[in-house]
Protein backbone atom coordinates (compact mmCIF):
# COMPACT_ATOMS: atom_id res chain seq x y z
CA UNK A 1 0.00 0.00 0.00
CA UNK A 2 1.31 3.46 -0.94
CA UNK A 3 1.97 5.61 2.13
CA UNK A 4 1.77 9.13 0.69
CA UNK A 5 -0.79 10.50 -1.73
CA UNK A 6 -1.16 14.11 -2.85
CA UNK A 7 -4.11 16.30 -3.74
CA UNK A 8 -3.55 18.78 -6.60
CA UNK A 9 -5.91 21.67 -7.28
CA UNK A 10 -5.83 23.49 -10.63
CA UNK A 11 -6.63 27.10 -9.76
CA UNK A 12 -4.86 29.17 -12.42
CA UNK A 13 -7.66 29.30 -14.98
CA UNK A 14 -9.56 32.43 -15.94
CA UNK A 15 -13.34 32.07 -15.53
CA UNK A 16 -14.42 34.21 -18.48
CA UNK A 17 -18.09 33.21 -18.24
CA UNK A 18 -18.17 33.63 -14.47
CA UNK A 19 -16.67 37.13 -14.48
CA UNK A 20 -14.66 36.87 -11.29
CA UNK A 21 -12.07 34.89 -9.35
CA UNK A 22 -14.30 31.94 -8.49
CA UNK A 23 -11.32 29.95 -7.17
CA UNK A 24 -11.20 32.33 -4.19
CA UNK A 25 -14.89 32.95 -3.63
CA UNK A 26 -16.34 31.48 -0.43
CA UNK A 27 -19.65 29.67 0.01
CA UNK A 28 -21.93 28.05 2.54
CA UNK A 29 -22.18 27.94 6.28
CA UNK A 30 -18.44 27.35 6.75
CA UNK A 31 -17.49 30.25 4.44
CA UNK A 32 -14.94 28.12 2.55
CA UNK A 33 -13.87 28.00 -1.09
CA UNK A 34 -15.07 25.04 -3.15
CA UNK A 35 -11.53 23.64 -3.12
CA UNK A 36 -11.48 23.78 0.67
CA UNK A 37 -14.70 21.77 0.89
CA UNK A 38 -13.04 19.18 -1.37
CA UNK A 39 -9.97 19.25 0.84
CA UNK A 40 -12.08 18.42 3.90
CA UNK A 41 -13.15 15.22 2.12
CA UNK A 42 -9.55 14.62 1.02
CA UNK A 43 -8.19 14.83 4.55
CA UNK A 44 -10.86 12.36 5.71
CA UNK A 45 -9.82 10.03 2.86
CA UNK A 46 -6.14 10.04 3.84
CA UNK A 47 -4.54 12.80 1.76
CA UNK A 48 -1.81 14.71 3.62
CA UNK A 49 -0.10 16.64 0.80
CA UNK A 50 -1.84 19.49 -1.01
CA UNK A 51 -0.61 21.50 -4.00
CA UNK A 52 -2.31 24.42 -5.74
CA UNK A 53 -1.42 25.32 -9.32
CA UNK A 54 -1.96 29.07 -9.48
CA UNK A 55 -1.16 32.35 -11.16
CA UNK A 56 1.73 33.79 -9.17
CA UNK A 57 -0.07 37.09 -8.56
CA UNK A 58 -2.40 35.27 -6.11
CA UNK A 59 0.38 33.53 -4.18
CA UNK A 60 0.01 35.52 -0.96
CA UNK A 61 -3.75 34.97 -0.79
CA UNK A 62 -3.55 31.21 -1.40
CA UNK A 63 -0.65 30.79 1.02
CA UNK A 64 -2.58 32.55 3.77
CA UNK A 65 -5.73 30.52 3.27
CA UNK A 66 -3.92 27.18 3.13
CA UNK A 67 -1.79 27.95 6.18
CA UNK A 68 -4.90 28.76 8.20
CA UNK A 69 -7.06 25.96 6.80
CA UNK A 70 -4.90 22.83 6.85
CA UNK A 71 -4.17 20.89 10.07
CA UNK A 72 -0.58 20.66 11.28
CA UNK A 73 -0.12 17.08 10.02
CA UNK A 74 -0.62 18.19 6.40
CA UNK A 75 1.84 19.98 4.13
CA UNK A 76 1.12 22.23 1.20
CA UNK A 77 2.85 23.91 -1.69
CA UNK A 78 2.12 26.43 -4.42
CA UNK A 79 3.00 25.67 -8.03
CA UNK A 80 3.08 28.57 -10.47
CA UNK A 81 1.80 27.75 -13.93
CA UNK A 82 4.57 28.95 -16.23
CA UNK A 83 3.82 31.72 -18.70
CA UNK A 84 6.24 30.26 -21.29
CA UNK A 85 7.59 33.64 -22.40
CA UNK A 86 9.61 32.03 -25.17
CA UNK A 87 6.33 31.20 -26.92
CA UNK A 88 4.63 34.55 -26.37
CA UNK A 89 7.33 37.10 -27.20
CA UNK A 90 5.23 38.36 -30.11
CA UNK A 91 1.83 37.83 -28.49
CA UNK A 92 0.04 39.21 -25.43
CA UNK A 93 -1.40 35.98 -24.02
CA UNK A 94 -3.39 36.33 -20.77
CA UNK A 95 -4.76 32.85 -20.14
CA UNK A 96 -2.68 29.85 -19.01
CA UNK A 97 -1.59 27.07 -21.36
CA UNK A 98 -4.22 24.51 -20.40
CA UNK A 99 -4.82 21.72 -17.89
CA UNK A 100 -2.16 19.37 -19.28
CA UNK A 101 0.42 22.12 -18.96
CA UNK A 102 -0.77 22.86 -15.40
CA UNK A 103 -0.11 19.29 -14.28
CA UNK A 104 3.23 19.19 -16.08
CA UNK A 105 4.32 22.19 -13.96
CA UNK A 106 3.88 20.05 -10.81
CA UNK A 107 6.71 17.65 -11.67
CA UNK A 108 9.31 19.11 -9.29
CA UNK A 109 6.84 19.39 -6.39
CA UNK A 110 4.84 16.15 -6.54
CA UNK A 111 6.81 12.93 -5.97
CA UNK A 112 4.03 10.49 -5.05
CA UNK A 113 0.74 9.24 -6.48
CA UNK A 114 -1.68 12.14 -6.76
CA UNK A 115 -5.15 13.17 -7.81
CA UNK A 116 -6.05 16.21 -9.90
CA UNK A 117 -9.06 18.44 -9.26
CA UNK A 118 -10.54 21.68 -10.52
CA UNK A 119 -10.81 24.54 -8.02
CA UNK A 120 -14.42 25.25 -9.00
CA UNK A 121 -15.87 21.71 -8.96
CA UNK A 122 -17.44 20.14 -5.87
CA UNK A 123 -16.80 16.42 -6.22
CA UNK A 124 -18.35 14.85 -3.12
CA UNK A 125 -16.94 12.65 -0.36
CA UNK A 126 -17.44 9.27 -2.06
CA UNK A 127 -15.73 10.40 -5.27
CA UNK A 128 -12.62 11.58 -3.45
CA UNK A 129 -12.60 8.45 -1.29
CA UNK A 130 -12.76 6.20 -4.38
CA UNK A 131 -9.80 8.09 -5.83
CA UNK A 132 -7.81 7.84 -2.60
CA UNK A 133 -8.35 4.08 -2.52
CA UNK A 134 -7.11 3.76 -6.11
CA UNK A 135 -3.99 5.84 -5.47
CA UNK A 136 -3.16 4.00 -2.23
CA UNK A 137 -3.37 0.61 -3.96
CA UNK A 138 -1.38 1.55 -7.09
CA UNK A 139 2.40 1.27 -7.41
CA UNK A 140 4.28 4.53 -8.09
CA UNK A 141 5.76 3.04 -11.26
CA UNK A 142 2.40 1.99 -12.71
CA UNK A 143 1.21 3.46 -15.99
CA UNK A 144 -2.42 2.76 -15.08
CA UNK A 145 -4.20 5.94 -14.06
CA UNK A 146 -7.83 6.67 -13.07
CA UNK A 147 -10.74 9.02 -13.62
CA UNK A 148 -13.91 9.39 -11.56
CA UNK A 149 -16.83 9.70 -13.99
CA UNK A 150 -20.21 11.36 -13.54
CA UNK A 151 -23.43 11.08 -15.56
CA UNK A 152 -23.63 13.83 -18.17
CA UNK A 153 -27.13 15.01 -17.20
CA UNK A 154 -25.97 15.62 -13.62
CA UNK A 155 -23.19 17.98 -14.77
CA UNK A 156 -25.20 20.38 -16.94
CA UNK A 157 -26.02 23.97 -16.02
CA UNK A 158 -29.47 25.56 -16.15
CA UNK A 159 -27.78 28.86 -16.95
CA UNK A 160 -26.05 28.12 -20.25
CA UNK A 161 -24.12 25.59 -22.29
CA UNK A 162 -21.02 23.76 -21.02
CA UNK A 163 -18.15 21.69 -22.36
CA UNK A 164 -17.65 18.12 -21.14
CA UNK A 165 -15.22 15.30 -21.81
CA UNK A 166 -17.44 12.43 -23.00
CA UNK A 167 -15.97 9.07 -21.95
CA UNK A 168 -16.10 5.72 -23.72
CA UNK A 169 -14.90 2.63 -21.84
CA UNK A 170 -14.54 -1.08 -22.50
CA UNK A 171 -16.26 -3.95 -20.67
CA UNK A 172 -13.61 -3.81 -17.94
CA UNK A 173 -14.16 -0.08 -17.31
CA UNK A 174 -10.94 1.04 -18.95
CA UNK A 175 -10.97 4.22 -21.02
CA UNK A 176 -11.05 3.74 -24.78
CA UNK A 177 -11.57 7.41 -25.68
CA UNK A 178 -12.43 10.79 -24.24
CA UNK A 179 -13.55 13.67 -26.43
CA UNK A 180 -14.22 17.26 -25.43
CA UNK A 181 -17.71 18.24 -26.57
CA UNK A 182 -18.84 21.86 -26.48
CA UNK A 183 -22.20 23.65 -26.35
CA UNK A 184 -23.93 21.06 -24.18
CA UNK A 185 -27.28 21.53 -22.47
CA UNK A 186 -30.35 19.31 -22.13
CA UNK A 187 -31.60 20.19 -25.61
CA UNK A 188 -28.23 19.40 -27.16
CA UNK A 189 -28.15 16.05 -25.35
CA UNK A 190 -31.58 15.15 -26.71
CA UNK A 191 -30.31 15.73 -30.24
CA UNK A 192 -26.93 14.05 -29.78
CA UNK A 193 -25.83 10.46 -30.29
CA UNK A 194 -24.79 10.02 -26.64
CA UNK A 195 -27.27 9.72 -23.79
CA UNK A 196 -27.85 11.87 -20.74
CA UNK A 197 -26.32 9.04 -18.71
CA UNK A 198 -23.09 9.06 -20.70
CA UNK A 199 -20.07 9.14 -18.36
CA UNK A 200 -18.12 12.38 -18.41
CA UNK A 201 -14.86 13.57 -16.90
CA UNK A 202 -14.92 16.54 -14.55
CA UNK A 203 -11.11 16.48 -14.20
CA UNK A 204 -10.99 14.24 -11.14
CA UNK A 205 -7.96 12.26 -12.30
CA UNK A 206 -5.59 9.94 -10.47
CA UNK A 207 -1.96 9.66 -11.60
CA UNK A 208 1.33 8.12 -10.63
CA UNK A 209 4.56 10.09 -11.20
CA UNK A 210 4.87 8.22 -14.51
CA UNK A 211 2.47 10.77 -16.02
CA UNK A 212 5.16 13.44 -16.04
CA UNK A 213 7.33 11.74 -18.66
CA UNK A 214 4.30 11.41 -20.91
CA UNK A 215 3.32 15.04 -20.34
CA UNK A 216 6.80 16.32 -21.16
CA UNK A 217 6.77 14.42 -24.44
CA UNK A 218 3.25 15.62 -25.24
CA UNK A 219 4.15 19.22 -24.45
CA UNK A 220 7.11 19.17 -26.81
CA UNK A 221 4.87 17.91 -29.58
CA UNK A 222 2.27 20.57 -28.76
CA UNK A 223 4.88 23.34 -28.88
CA UNK A 224 5.98 22.29 -32.33
CA UNK A 225 2.44 22.37 -33.68
CA UNK A 226 0.97 25.57 -32.21
CA UNK A 227 -1.17 27.38 -34.75
CA UNK A 228 -2.68 30.11 -32.56
CA UNK A 229 -0.30 31.34 -29.85
CA UNK A 230 -3.00 33.45 -28.22
CA UNK A 231 -5.53 30.66 -27.78
CA UNK A 232 -4.17 27.12 -28.23
CA UNK A 233 -4.13 25.00 -25.05
CA UNK A 234 -2.41 21.79 -24.00
CA UNK A 235 -5.53 20.17 -22.56
CA UNK A 236 -5.43 17.19 -20.23
CA UNK A 237 -8.38 15.29 -21.74
CA UNK A 238 -7.08 15.54 -25.32
CA UNK A 239 -3.62 14.50 -24.17
CA UNK A 240 -4.91 11.47 -22.23
CA UNK A 241 -7.03 10.48 -25.20
CA UNK A 242 -3.96 10.44 -27.45
CA UNK A 243 -1.66 8.48 -25.11
CA UNK A 244 -4.39 5.90 -24.38
CA UNK A 245 -4.91 5.35 -28.10
CA UNK A 246 -1.14 5.01 -28.54
CA UNK A 247 -1.05 2.33 -25.84
CA UNK A 248 1.26 4.33 -23.57
CA UNK A 249 -1.03 4.10 -20.53
CA UNK A 250 -4.37 2.81 -19.27
CA UNK A 251 -7.09 4.70 -17.38
CA UNK A 252 -9.50 2.96 -15.04
CA UNK A 253 -12.93 4.59 -14.91
CA UNK A 254 -14.19 4.75 -11.33
CA UNK A 255 -17.88 5.02 -10.42
CA UNK A 256 -19.16 7.10 -7.51
CA UNK A 257 -22.35 7.66 -5.58
CA UNK A 258 -21.43 11.34 -5.18
CA UNK A 259 -23.25 14.09 -7.02
CA UNK A 260 -21.12 16.66 -8.78
CA UNK A 261 -21.82 20.38 -8.42
CA UNK A 262 -19.88 23.22 -9.98
CA UNK A 263 -19.81 26.77 -11.21
CA UNK A 264 -19.54 27.83 -14.83
CA UNK A 265 -21.72 30.94 -14.75
CA UNK A 266 -22.16 33.47 -11.94
CA UNK A 267 -25.84 32.49 -11.82
CA UNK A 268 -24.76 28.95 -10.80
CA UNK A 269 -23.64 30.42 -7.47
CA UNK A 270 -27.14 30.32 -5.95
CA UNK A 271 -27.36 26.52 -6.18
CA UNK A 272 -23.86 26.01 -4.75
CA UNK A 273 -24.67 28.37 -1.90
CA UNK A 274 -27.82 26.40 -1.13
CA UNK A 275 -26.08 23.01 -1.19
CA UNK A 276 -23.22 24.15 1.04
CA UNK A 277 -25.53 25.85 3.52
CA UNK A 278 -27.56 22.72 4.30
Structural class: alpha/beta
Q: Report Rg.
A: 18 Å
Q: Write down the CATH class.
A: Alpha Beta
Secondary structure tally, helices: 8
CATH superfamily: Spore Coat Polysaccharide Biosynthesis Protein SpsA, Chain A
The proportion of residues in beta strands is: 25-35%
How many strands? 13
Number of domains: 1
Order of helices and strands: EEEHEHEHEEHEEEHEHHEEH
> Which regions are unreliable across 5 or more consecutive residues at pLDDT < 50?
15-20
Span between termini: 36 Å
Which sheet architecture does the biggest sheet show?
A: 9 strands, mixed
Architecture in CATH? Alpha-Beta Complex
Outline the structure in words.
With 278 residues, the protein is an alpha/beta fold. The protein is built from eight helices and 13 strands. Helix 1 (34-45) packs across helix 4 (125-136). The longest helix has 14 residues, at 211-224. The N and C termini lie far apart (36 Å).
Entry keywords:
two-stranded antiparallel ribbon; Spore Coat Polysaccharide Biosynthesis Protein SpsA, Chain A; 9-stranded mixed sheet; 278 residues; alpha/beta; globular
TL;DR of this structure?
With 278 residues, the chain is α/β, with parallel strands linked by helices. It has one domain: Alpha-Beta Complex (Spore Coat Polysaccharide Biosynthesis Protein SpsA, Chain A). The protein has 8 helices and 13 strands.
